[in-house]
Amino acid sequence: MKCIVLGSGTSTGVPRIGDDWGDCDPDEPRNRRTRVSILLESAEGRRILVDTSTDLRQQLLANRIDAIDAVFWTHDHADHCHGIDDLRVLRYGRGGSIPGYASGFTVERLRRRFDYVFAGQHGYPTIVSLESLDRLRLCAGFAVNWCQMPHGPAQSTGFRFECDGKSVAYATDFSEIRDEMVDTFYGVDLLVTDCLRREPHPTHAHLAMALELAERCRARQTVLTHLDKSMDYRTLAREIPDGVMVGYDGLEVRL
Q1: Which of 2, 46, 77, 86 suits a disulfide with 140, CB 3.0-4.6 Å?
Q2: Contact by Cβ (8 Å): 70, 102
Q3: How many whole angstroms from its chain centre is CA 203?
Q4: Going by DSSP bridges, is the β-strand pair 70-72/221-225 parallel, antiparallel, or unpaired?
Q5: What's the Cα-to-Cα distance from 75 to each of 69, 83, 158, rounded to whole Å?
Q6: What are the angstrom distances between the C-alpha of 137 and each of 160, 233, 241?
Q7: Coiled-coil region(s) at which residues (predicted)?
Q8: pLDDT (tens digit per residue) in 69-97
Q9: The pTM is what?
Q10: Quick one: pLDDT band at residue 255, thresholds 50, 70, 90?
């Protein structure tokens, strides 16, 4: 199994509009960050996309992704779902709509905002068949487990996917570590975790919290993502312990 980090940046990306790189070196390609998303691929070539970031088209082109088997959403914030229209092209040539999954609350919010995606419109077919995660345990050959995580006053869904004897956890947009998260992610081969900045933040994990989650979960490898303009790639890479990587757009981890 492999995990591709499609996007590794915060909601405004790096650089911010106005060519604002903050503390990030503009000459380091790994500091150029689109909005967060990952893709998992099994040994048999089955693919799961997690989140439809605002930069989805660019990410799919950059990584030569032209088909997926399912899509999952962590929550409905704009940087995680507003690239949803780019799923239309992935619907072409399929016998049916793309299976999609999210928590019940997120399903409700997505249906309200993007009704044409889930119900078709003006003769166009349904792009995604959206269902709640409640009864889901297996998708496209991947075993699926999940938990709800605090994201300031909101919530985000953390996922654990297992396939080919390996496991990947995706925990983005959380602001507190809860026991359910540790239980869900425990012993995972790869943890991809929220890590906005070094200083605490009211709705996101900071560096110390991300490293704490990795340690408590006994993750074998960890990738830091959702990085803002204060997190220069090379500087951060020198600060983190063995077994932890600074995520960047296009990073591919094979398990």
Answers
A1: 46
A2: no
A3: 16
A4: unpaired
A5: 20, 13, 10
A6: 11, 36, 33
A7: none
A8: 999 999 999 999 999 999 999 999 888 99
A9: 0.96
A10: very high
Tell me the three state secondary structure of residue 39: strand
Residues with Cβ within 8 Å of residue 253, at least 6 apart in sequence: 2, 3, 5, 190, 221, 223, 245
Check whether 150 has a pLDDT greater than 80. Answer: yes
User: What is the secondary structure of 170-197 as a DSSP string?
Assistant: EE-S-SS--HHHHHHHTT-SEEEEE---
Three-state DSSP class for 111? helix
Q: What is the mean pLDDT of residues 232-246?
A: 98
User: DSSP state, 105?
Assistant: H
Predicted local distance difference test score (pLDDT) of residue 166: 97
In this predicted structure, the answer to whether residue 135 has a pLDDT above a threshold of 90 is no
Q: How far is CA 22 from CA 14, 136, 231, in A?
A: 9, 41, 9
Q: Any residues with CB less than 8 A from the CB of 218 and at least 6 apart, and which?
A: 186, 187
Q: What's the distance, Cα to Cα, between the start and end of the chain in Å?
A: 5
Structure tokens at 70: 């399912």
| Each residue's pLDDT tens digit, 184-213 | 999 999 999 999 999 999 999 999 999 999
**Interatomic CA distance for residues 248 and 15, integer angstroms:** 13
d(CA 63, CA 9): 16
Helix (H) or strand (E) holding 150: strand 142-151
The identity of residue 203, as a single letter, is: T
Secondary structure (DSSP) of 47-85: EEEE---TTHHHHHHHTT----SEEE-S---HHHHTTGG
